[in-house]
Fold this sequence. Notes:
Blueprint (H helix, E strand, L loop, with lengths): L1 H16 L1 E3 H11 L4 E4 L6 H9 L3 E4 L3 H15 L3 E5 L3 H16 L3 E7 L2 H5 L10 H5 L5 E4 L6 H13 L5 E7 H5 L1 E3 H7 L14 H13 L3 E5 L1 H6 L2 H11 L3 E3 L19 H7 L2 E5 L20 E6 L13 E4 L2 H11 L9 H23 L7 H14 L4 E5 L2 H9 L8 E2 L10 H12 L3 E6 H7 L3 H6 L4 E7 L29 H6 L3 E5 L2 H14 L3 E6 L23
Parallel strand pairs: 2-3, 2-4, 4-5, 5-7, 6-7, 9-10, 9-11, 11-12, 12-13, 14-15, 14-16, 16-17, 17-19, 18-19
Antiparallel strand pairs: 1-8
Helix pairs in contact: 2-3, 2-8, 4-5, 4-19, 11-15, 13-15, 17-18, 17-23
Amino acid sequence: MAEVGNELQRHAAEEQQAQTDGFHLVIDALKLNGIENIYGLPGIPVTDLARLAQANGMRVISFRHEQNAGNAAAIAGFLTQKPGVCLTVSAPGFLNGLTALANATTNCFPMILISGSSEREIVDLQQGDYEEMDQLAIARPHAKAAFRVLHAEDIGVGVARAIRAAVSGRPGGVYLDLPAKLLAQSMEAEKGRKSLIKVVDPAPRQLPAPDSVDRAVELLKTAKRPLILLGKGAAYARADADIRALVEKTGIPYLPMSMAKGLLPDTHPQSASAARSYVLAEADVVVLVGARLNWLLSHGKGKTWGKPKQFIQIDISPTEMDSNVAIAAPVVGDIGSCVSALLGKIGNDFAKPGADWLNAVDERKEKNLAKMAETLAKETSPMNFHSALRVLKDVVKANPSISFVNEGANTLDYARAVIDMYEPRKRLDVGTWGVMGVGMGYAVAAAVETSKPVLAVCGDSAFGFSGMEVETICRYDLPVCIVVFNNNGVYKGIDKNPTGGKDPAVTMFVPGARYDKMMEAFGGVGHNVTTPAELESAVNEALRSGKPTLINAVIDPAAGTESGRLTNLNPQSSASK
Length: 577
């Protein structure tokens, strides 16, 4: 009888071993496709999914707020060309992650937001389930694609479709809805293994039509004052060598958008960053490489663009063409293939721009660089944005491989103009939407994905959106140095309540706040600095030590301007004029 009992137990154990469930299938599907990291926040119904992912060798970074985890996943996608994965709980957690998903889609960052959800039969009848919400319907308008998986045998298909949707064509955010009941479903392990899909060539090359390339080259040959404008799509494409060859072979001045800085060093002789307004207004033919004529470029219209011009646009999406102005020579395809095709058509006999244009650009650059050098050299007490950024400019020059995360209003705008980048995909900022609050999520992901130090420079207002993630940075012991430019408020710290009442002005923060104490509270290093010398010492110490560090950089409360450089987007009421 004992032998029979042992045999039954053995059979039961074998039968148990031969089973898998939705939890394991999701993890196996992600791992099969090279996804190594998950950013998220555990809770019902995905707590065990996060635990099992970690137990199965994935790195799970748990945040304090889902929006920050989503921002981390989004920038991870930009840095790796693989979809960053964010895991959230249902309803409120999903909604918190949705902002990051929408931002990823707008910025063309490949990301997958995976959220647990309530059971369909209860949601559809609106019977009042725990955190009941039709998340799929809500996600669709804000994502490139959205899918729901109801059966364990379809998990492989769902993950594969999400990956392909996130990275193919124009990258973007994808939502994957996993109801709680799905995760607990079981099936035969071998059948489950066979149901998984390893995505082959998830982002296939899209070659441009030869006649579109010929048209672009012929237009470029007629240009008297050509300009190449590089967008963050060019940085994402990782066609660095060909883009540099195109710039240098043609001899055309180039202008990088902020997240394209470093594709070529900002100190490159053909960089026109210091003459941005001049080249945009005066160019006659502009080559857009992974850049869109959106609000960041005044929609290609108005005073910014000055003289009439023709556009050559390289973009993977044909619907991007003519979205604001007529595009004379659209080149549709992936950026690497398009730039390579252009290079193949530009022979050694290509006539470089004339001396009149190049000399005019250089003259304007030298004038503006001299003016900036004079501004940066001024010693101010207390520090202003420029005297603080002078220090950080030298730090980045000495450490070109660090990731530089930047957000704020004045902090963003001034840093964009002052700090040179030397390597691609090292400047990470608010991008197309211009949203605040991306800083700490970006900093965490940059440290995790690159395994190199991160310097995050934030305005005090921007830092407030995600500041609690300093605990996450300390918990995972990440080499992140945060510099908070603290001028006691939004834009400035000197506004007054117009009524003279007790409440502070709407743009005011607590004067003299010590953000460095937040980092110290979680075991990190804090510094309070008031001079450029103190700032330099603190940043260099942080980079040497690799310890989580927050530097509270005290800035003149009167420094800064309303809305940074976007005053025109912040209309005033007639009563205030």
